[in-house]
Amino acid sequence: MVSRQRKKILVKGVVQGVGFRPFVYRLAVSENLKGFVSNSSHGVEIEVEGEPSSLERFLQNLQSDSPVLAKITKVEISDMPVSEDTEFLIKSSKVEEEKSTLISPDVSICDDCLRELFDPDDRRYRYPFINCTNCGPRYTIIKDIPYDRSNTTMASFQMCEDCQTEYNDPSNRRFHAQPNGCSLCGPRVWLTDNTAKEINVENPIVETTRYLKQGKIVAVKGLGGFHVARDEANVEAVSLLRERKRREEKPLAVMSLDIKTVEMFAELNPKEKDLLLSPRRPIVLLKKKHPNPLAESVAPRNGYFGTMLPYTPLHYLLLKEGFIALVMTSGNISEEPIVTDNGEALQRLGKIADFFLMHNREIYIRNDDSVTEVVGRLPRVVRRSRGYVPFPIFLRRSIPSILAVGAELKNTICLTRADKAFLSQHIGDLENIETLNSFEKTISHLKKILQINPSAVAYDLHPDYLSTQWVQKQEGIPKIGIQHHHAHIASCLAENGRDEKVIGLSLDGTGYGSDGNVWGGEILIADFSTFERVGHFDYRPMPGGVAAIREPWRMGISYLYKVYKEDSDNEDTQDFINWMARLPILKQVGSDKIIGIVRMIQKKINTPLTSSLGRLFDGVAAVIGLRQKVVFEGQAAMELEMAMNNKMWDGSFDKAYKFEIFEKGEKVLISPDRVVKHIMKDVLNSVPVETISLNFHVGLVQLFLEICKKIGRRSGIKIVALSGGCFQNRFLLENLSSILEKTGFEVLTHSQVPPNDGGLALGQAVIASRFLEENK
User: Fold this and answer.
1) Domain with 109 in it
2) Residues 208 and 330 placed together within one structural domain of the fold
3) Total count of domains within the chain
4) Mean pLDDT of 526-536
5) How far apart, in whole angstroms, are the C-alpha atoms of residue 42 and residue 46?
6) How many other CB atoms sit within 10 Å of the CB of residue 649?
7) In-domain check, residue 595
8) What is the pLDDT of residue 705?
9) Distance separating alpha carbons of residues 218 and 207, to the nearest angstrom
10) With 0-12 CB in 10 A as exposed, 13-18 as middle and 19+ as buried, what is 8?
């Protein structure tokens, strides 16, 4: 007879709060094994003994049959003395000094809970907080690890006898489901008006749907914060919401019940469908159908709807009442963080919402909806938040622990531990005290639950960023400044598990340059250690500084004035006005304002220099009369892309606008002047905007192809990394990637991490860690 054996197993990864311990229990019992399983601060610890063949099957099935939500990153196995256990137990969690377990993101309601939600015979019928070990809140309710009820915001809810029985039963789907509850013992919902007066009705959710159908605006407390909801079919309600929320034109997200409903207003491919249905349930940018049943005001002058499916039982109960879609926008005042607290919601959203659907389960960490899209056959994250955070990005190797504080816009922070980089949820634009407070709380919370004590802090070189100023006030920790566009390329490298030198196209709107100018159209040779700026767009004045971002016409005048001076060798402002007299920008802006801007350029008053591609997009949009002022970041560039008819492109560069490339020593300079002249000529010849936009975009693809070929020949590098906010432009990303690959380059792009500043902290972290390693 073969003797019994005992093994000690440590399973690391996302293995807490996902039904892993009951899975281990059932697996061990099925193989007649004895021992125990327990949560620890390192992961899940198992001691198991029995016949060698049973142990072998157990170890095989431990990874192959693990719960859907579990993500095993490492399994450590060691031999133990046999202890002659007589049963297999689930033991209480261990609390230890060092903590290295991974926490599950928040997960959408599972199919089993959804069936129970609408089953009249189930005791949780229409209970808006139904969940189990396979679904429900995680990151937003956790205060500390191990992930036990006492360490979550569910600690204040004492389970009833039935819920406790489920919780204690290893064969039950709700065994150790920490948010477990029911209508007798769990959280509850109620409805108030915007003066905090409770609406006494039997069913607050049904009453909410009645108000929504009347065109009322309702603030709904969800998983990671409040949404502001209204019926998209009510055009007046959408307009009123935009007015109250001060969100005049920025696209609004919609939520629909199911795929069949989404297909009524959006085109769907299989990968987009998979994204919509995934447990992460992000917003997915989907191409509009024409004609369309949704109000145009939901996403004006935009070819896409940001669409998501319900991810909480509460959402399903609302959507089941016959809506094609509900507009579900973040519950915040413009530019402030999403609201999470009931009292705060009444205070901050009271002038936006008519009614409030609230609940009493505390949201410990705010967590906005994630935004994704499918481009070039790959799902890509535009905003990484709910459903993704706090799951890490896995690095190629272990690195020192770093705190990286990101940028000013689309801020996220990053903490590293060993071979993992933990990007935070979307924090927002660091432009007010509320967002700065959220930034500080996020740093403190992630350091606590991840048990990371960083050895250095990395920050952007821009001296005016609030994140940079925050770092300068920190004492007792080394501070490492990182150039913005180098961080973009490093972020792309880290996500792709690479660290060799690449040709990096770092293209965005704004980033502080090493020379003090505003960069944004950068060609780099870079790795984690160093970067060399081998090319960029030639500098142009940015009249008014930040004002030129809000008013693209200023950049339009800057580009036009440069061309005018070259053509006429004349700086007379009235002659300039006469020269551009037939362009739409003159009529839309007015000669007095334009003359004022020209004089600023002439006298170099508040006109920082920029090499930004984002500003060139703005300038072109203004010159052709498309957009002179913006109300949200990137609006002009987005509308320029949307104006294009890309189906007209046959793949050739015959009609593309040709950029001029100059050599300045070892550096490549790109002049936009010839392109601006050609655009001006086409506008005066009444060439359609859709054609001008297409020729401009195709010209950019040709430009960057030629530059990569030139730099590649010179350097011998055949890998190109694409990063920066300009690569949210689908046409540019998809076509440039494709043509570079066909030319023989390996192309690295973003998928798990945003290409915009939401991914910048990852790049800062890996550059700073390399700096520490090389300067010990």
Assistant:
1) 104-136+146-186
2) yes
3) 4
4) 98
5) 12
6) 18
7) yes
8) 98
9) 11
10) middle
